[in-house]
Amino acid sequence: MFHRTIAAELTLELDHTPAVALLGPRQVGKTTLALEVAHNRPSVYLDLESERDRAKLDNAELYLSDHLDKLVILDEVHRTPALFPLLRGLIDQARRSGKTAGQYLLLGSASWDLLQQSGETLAGRISYLDMTGLTVQETGADQQDSLWLRGGFPDSLQSPNEARSLRWRESFIRTYLERDIPQFGPRIPAETLRRLWTMLAHHQGGLLNVAQLARNIGVDAKTAASYIDLLSDLLLVRRLAPWHDNQGKRLVKSHKVYVRDSGLVHALLHIGSKDDLLSHPVVGASWEGFCIENLLACAPRGVQAFFYRSSGGAEVDLLLLWPNGERWAIEIKRSTAPKVERGFHSACEDLQPARKLVVYPGQESYRLREDVHAVSLHALCQELLTP
Q1: Where is each AAA domain found (predicted)?
Q2: Does the chain have fewer CB atoms within 10 Å around its N or its C terminus?
């Protein structure tokens, strides 16, 4: 059992907000966390993929009215969009009687944008949390390589061997393509979407070129863009925005694109062992995406993430912008003896960051230059989590 760092934030939100939406891919641990958090308060759990639990909501208003004194956990809530207007009314009813927090915990496998398309908004009554896979801070630095290879889904990470882990991830991908994704929009050919997903894995950390991807899978650019939007809404793909601030520089304007879970990257590319990974061309980009996902999962709310690249070669892999305007420039290196290249220094001259950091696979933290520090991924994640 892993302690999920998001648990404290989820508890805090439930203590101050009538409804909380906890969103993340299937099998990432949402239900386990929800039941753990609800253990110390009166609660009722409904799995809306279960016919028996859905039957309890045949008269949803009557059933939910009987549980206004409890936290009601609604799992896979996107399957019953008709509930949203009802929840709004029940929240307002409870507010009038003095209950202002901790009424509903909504678990979903899609981003809230998709939920809004099928239900009435709960604006002003709900807060949102995105749940990622396990991070290196949650598993411990000693499991970093295994976490990188297998990804952050608990069942994949805890498989008895590499072959079973890979088999689990391949089954996960197939289930998403054939069963889950068709729930969220028009019917998409599973093989077409698999090809796109695989191309994104090959292109891990590259600039997003929708027109080229569209040609490769035989669809128009608008259709390809909608497929990428869907994978992004399902929290399976990340589009990292470019930084734009200095009008005197010619900066890259395209987003970078990542398959968010490193284990899925490797499954899509049929990489089953660490030896296979280290000899594969995707190794550097895979490590970069793995570090970015871990760092952003640990970054406080309000911190914005970008990358920086100019036509002149200045580049920063990850730029964190804090709410007070402070900037952290982070370079990601797979080498155990990292060296900072000229492009990073040029970018820092443009950006003037408060911190210049190089994340590398080792565990020791030390100075590469007077103002540039090499740090371990685990140490930087811990720093981001420390208030």
Answers
A1: 18-138
A2: C
